[in-house]
């Protein structure tokens, strides 16, 4: 596994750099590798520039999202192709994006559960999905279906207004029988999205997500939940709060989803409320940056050397150099928080906001998986005297997530094409300074 984020040499963990004399005695002593699992509605994101007349002709409402019948969606897609209006077509899905970015950053394996068209032709959406997904994402566990994967068509008019046409295809047909229990229970994390619970009553996707979450809980595997959109949460706020309390370790959300879930408009206050149900929270807040909040045992607290920040919780970042833990693993749990402003003040020109939160989550998953990897290979390390969720401090993880999120904002695709550069002339070493 590639190490998460830039570090000073003393923090690097070369678990393969064994004493050569020991290597002769133990030739099979190879590092144990792990993986991250996720369940997604497999779909492609299609972006096209159209005139308002196009929307009117197809009965689409400007600025809104509309679920279409397959025949109607096919007609729209066919016309876009014939008129050359499509600007881009990328593999999408919030979990697919997250696992792809995780595998690019970590240079390590992830496993995706979902559906895939059993017949794939060149140029189809299924073909595009496979072409734009990292080879480190294991797609061998996808369930073959006789039909198309999902399509999310974003139609942009000259005034910049975005309208969405959704073709579900077969994306919610993943059966619980097609999940692999061993893969889930041996993973460093299981990643789910609130979208999975939005399927129709006859579709098995929600049952698959609940089954996977239960298997993960039984094995002590962290369950990660991304909140989708505020509209999903608003309809069933109490239900989601209970689901998080029963199944979820880490909640990833933006400030709008945080408001819908907790009733708190302030991102820090929303994070604090979510800690009543979960162990760790990531909240992206647009131009305000991002917040991380978690729990740590009193004996493991480490004070920051940065200025203490004001907010709804005064001096909330005092213990941001601490590493988060499950609340159940703390004898005397204390809540810890950190905040970071957008990297380099944010991009001069934002090309794409779709996927920035998924990219930040991928960085956090990378650090969690690195911690699991290191614990398995160097169990006697001082890093594991207590059972932490991440290898790095809350502050350090926020810097890594912030940097990765920036990389997605300055490109058209929500998926990284390469990992972060080892050295950056524009990045002062002070950015990474602080507790690991």
From TrEMBL:
Pathway: Purine metabolism; IMP biosynthesis via salvage pathway; IMP from inosine: step 1/1; Purine metabolism; GMP biosynthesis via salvage pathway
UniProt GO MF annotations: ATP binding; guanosine kinase activity; inosine kinase activity
Leading EC class: transferase
Cofactor: Mg(2+)
Protein EC: 2.7.1.73
Residue positions binding GMP: 93-97, 198
PANTHER family given in the database record: CARBOHYDRATE KINASE PFKB DOMAIN-CONTAINING PROTEIN (PTHR43320:SF3), SUGAR KINASE (PTHR43320)
Catalytic reaction equation(s): inosine + ATP = IMP + ADP + H(+); guanosine + ATP = GMP + ADP + H(+)
Protein residues bound to ATP: 284-289, 357, 402
Keywords: ATP-binding, Kinase, Magnesium, Nucleotide-binding, Purine salvage, Transferase
GO BP terms, alphabetized: GMP salvage; IMP salvage; purine ribonucleoside salvage
Domain annotation Carbohydrate kinase PfkB: ranges: 134-296
Organism (species): Zobellella taiwanensis
Alphabetized InterPro entries for the sequence: Carb_kinase_PfkB-like, IngK, PfkB_dom, Ribokinase-like
Protein name: Guanosine-inosine kinase
